[in-house]
Input
Amino acid sequence: MDRRRALLLLTAVGGLAMLRPSVLLAASADELAGEGQAELTGGNVAKALVLLHEAESKDPRNDRVQALLGRAYFQQGDARAALTHFTLAVRLNPEDTLSRLLADTISQFPLPAAKGGSGRETSSSRSRPSKLAQDAKAEREALAKGAGKSSRQGPWRVLVDAGHGGLDAGAAVGGLREADVALDLALRLARTLAPARNEVVIHLTRTADVSLPGWARAGLAGFYGADLLVSLHAARVSDPAAMGIAAYGFGREPSDALAALVARVENAAYGPGASWKSRGGEGLFLAAANNAVGQDRFARGLALARAFIRAIPAAAPLPTRVAGSAPLKLLEEADAPGIFLETGFLSNADDVAALGSPDKRQALAQALADALLAALRGEVKMPPAAGRG
Ligand SMILES: [Zn+2]
Output
């Protein structure tokens, strides 16, 4: 956080005069892209944009430059420009899955009207039968209204991942699908925390019912430079007594039998992992942006999971279980500390009843938001170490 503040200050004081003229005169598009990427990673979007546009003028068909421009504009809150550059990046390099994913993600939001006048509408022609999906749509629109203001005051960056989606419904009981519950809660959580954007900025891995491979979710954590990844789920496990909110940090060994069950069920949905790390320029780009995170992220994720569970208000619509650790692939691969949240279990009748109610989901989202802020602020009083989760 201090480093980010310092960079902001430097920008304010030195501004563009700090650019080395030699960089602009002599460097190749790739060198400029590297410089731009470094600035972007440091949080200096304005400087990154100057470098990247210079790179673009030298090589307009460089897909990496276009992808980085997309990311820079996205960080700046200019979704329309970001979409343009991500789309170009995909056109230049159809293998650039991440740019494709981000273009898709951005285009799910209603964009502000273009200069010409005709604003893009999100397609409403697809039939959305379930009430939950309708709720999600309303939440998404409300969220989009509040989006676009990017405050770079050094807030925490939290990537909220709505588990499953698209072809992968996750668990399902009656008309309730885990993918829908997770999306609804993710959108509600983001909306609930929107007024606190000076303190915490929420990014979402998905904002609609779309498929998203596990590696992409893990990659997005690094892409956003997230301080924390929170993945939302409501699994169905073979133990019907399992109920309430359970939070896991990464651990090679499951902390108890339920943690082992959760890891088995959720890892099956994660799919093949680690591929993004080896993907051409994009993997390099992700890795370079985030290789400083290291193994500390596991300890940090686990500590945050414990603090988070302790901070959940007693009035939450679901009881809280103890936090634990589990060998979850998403947490292992994401370049950020992570909390894997089971926001209830669809194998438990009481949880199903609670998660099926919009009012209870809203109350749950509020409880999760409160707990998240308290955990990030370090407000949670923890018992002396050594106590088992
Ligand atoms: Zn799940």
